[in-house]
Amino acid sequence: MFWLKKHWFHLTFLLLCLVRVGHYFYDVQGGLICIRERVFTSSRESSETPIAVPGSFFSTTAYRVRGVLFVFREKVDLFKKLTTLLVRRSLPSPHSELLLGSTLGINDLSLVPRFNDVVVVTGTIHVIVVSGYNISLVSGMVTRALGSKYRRKNFIIASLGTFVYAVISGFEPPVIRAWIMGTIASYGTFLGRKNDIVGVLFVSAESMLLVQPAFICSLSFQLSFLATLSLLFFSFAVSRVLSFINKSRLGRLFYQDLVATVSAQILVLPLIAFSFGRISLVSFVANALLLWTVPLATVYGLALLAVLYLSYFLNFWPFVFLAKIISAFVFVFLDIFIRGVYFFAAVPYANIDFKMPLRVLLMYYFACFLVVLAPKFFSRLKIFSSEKA
User: Fold this and answer.
1) Using CA atoms, how far apart are residues 265 and 354, in angstroms rounded to an integer?
2) pLDDT band, residue 204 (cuts 50/70/90)
3) 202 pLDDT higher than 90
C-alpha cells in the first residue's frame, strides 16, 4: 500500500498512456490498424469525423494555427538552406554533412553514400543526428549566459531556447524526449529538488505517447528510450567491470566513452539486430575511441555557425577571418572522426548479418528486467523480514 501511495502519479500516467496507445492500435469503427510494415492506415473515412464545423471558432483557430506553423516551417527551411550553403563554403565533403547533421539534424548523407555506409557499418550513425547531448549543451550555454539557474526568468528563457533549437533541428522523437527530460530536470533543479532520472525518462516517454501514440512504433523513439534507460540501469555495473581500464593513463582517456557505449548497447543492440538483421562488431571500440571528437566538433561547430551568419549579414572582414580560424579547428576534429570510421569499417567482419527473432528479443528484455529489479526486490524483502522479526 505504501508503494502505491508513493507512485500513484506514475501509475495513473502510465494507465492513461496505455489506454491512449491501445485506442490507437484498435480503432472502434475501423478495426485493427495494420502495423506489420509500420504503415498506419484506418478504414474510417475522414469525412465521418470532421475536425471542426466550417466557420466555427475552432475551425478558424485551427486554420490560423496551421497558417502560423506553415510560415514558421518556411522560415526554418530557408534557415537550413542558407546554413547548408554557408557551411559547404567553409568545409569540404563529407565534413560539411557531418557538421550539419550533428549540430542541426540536417540529413544530407544521401550526397555521400560511401560515408553513409561507413557510419552504418561502424555503428556511429547516431553521431550524425541531434540528440540529448545537443539539447543539454544549448541549455547549459543559455543558462551560463543568463547567470543563475535558480531564477525563474532564466529557466523560462533556457526552456524556450532549447525548444526553438529542437524545432529547428527537426523535432524528431529523440530530440523531443531529450527536451522534455531536460525541461523537467531543469525545473527540479530550479525548485532545489533531487531529480529521479528514471522517473523523468518514463514521464517524458508517456507524455510523448499521450500526444502522439504513433511514436510507439517509431524506431528512433524506441532506440532513444532504450539507450537512455540502459545507461541509467547498467552504467554503474559496467563501470565496475571495466574499472581495470581506468587504472592506466591511456585508458582514462577513453574509459567514460567506453562505459557509456557498452551500457547503451545492452538494450539497444538486440533491437538493432531485430530491426535491421545485422550488428556491428567494431561499434564498441569505434565509439569509445572516436566519441571524444563529437563534443568538441559540436561546440566549435555551433560557434562557426554563429560567426558565419555574422560574416554573411555584416560582411565585416574580422568575422570572415574568425570564421576561417574556427573552421580550421572544426575540420581537425571532424577529420579525425571521419578517418577513424573509415579505418574501422575496413576491419574484416566489422559488420555481420544476424537477425534476432521476436521471441528471443522479448525473452532477452524480460531477463534484463529481472536482473534490474531482482536486487531491489530481495533487499526490500530482507528489510521487511527483519522488521517483522
Assistant:
1) 15
2) confident
3) no
Spatial distance between the Cα atoms of 208 and 180, rounded to a whole number of angstroms: 9
Mean pLDDT of the 375-379 span: 59
Q: Which residues of 281-317 are buried (b: 16+ CB within 10 A; e: fewer)?
A: bbbebbbbbbbbbbebbbbbbbebbebbbbbbeeeee
Q: Rounded distance, CA 50 to CA 13, Å?
A: 28
Strand-pairing partners, residue 278, are 353
- Tell me which residue of 108, 96, 124, 134 sits closest to 335, measured CA to CA: 96
Give the pLDDT band of residue 58 (cuts 50, 70, 90). Answer: very low
pLDDT in tens, 147-162: 776 677 777 888 888 8
Which three three-digit cell numbers place residue 253? 582517456
- Where does residue 73 rank: exposed (0-12), middle (13-18), buried (19+ CB within 10 A)? exposed
List 352's β-bridge partners, or say none.
279
264 contacts 257 by C-beta, under 8 angstroms: no
CA 80, 86, 92, 96 torsion-angle sign: negative
What whole-number percentage of the chain has pLDDT above 90? 10
Rounded Cα gap, residues 334 and 309, in angstroms: 21
Q: What pLDDT does residue 38 have? A: 39
Grid cell at residue 164? 526553438
DSSP structure string for 14-64: HHHHHHHHHHHHEETTTEEPP-TTS----SS-GGGS-SS-TTSHHHHHHHH
DSSP string, 367-378: HHHHHHHHHHHH
Taking a C-beta distance cutoff of 8 angstroms, is the pair 334, 99 a contact?
Answer: yes
| Packed helices 152-168 and 132-146: angle between N→C axes, nearest 10 degrees | 140
Q: Are 59 and 51 in contact (CB under 8 A)?
A: yes
Looking at residue 27, the DSSP 8-state letter turns out to be E
Burial (CB count within 10 angstroms: exposed 0-12, middle 13-18, buried 19+), residue 145: exposed
The residue type of 257 is D
CA distance 205 to 216: 9
**pLDDT, tens digit, for every residue of 307-358?**
998 888 888 788 888 989 999 999 999 999 999 999 999 988 888 888 889 8
Which tens digits make up the pLDDT trace of 207-254? Answer: 888 877 778 888 888 888 888 889 888 888 888 888 888 888 877 888
Residues 286, 122: Cα–Cα separation, whole Å: 7
Count of positions (residues) in the chain: 389
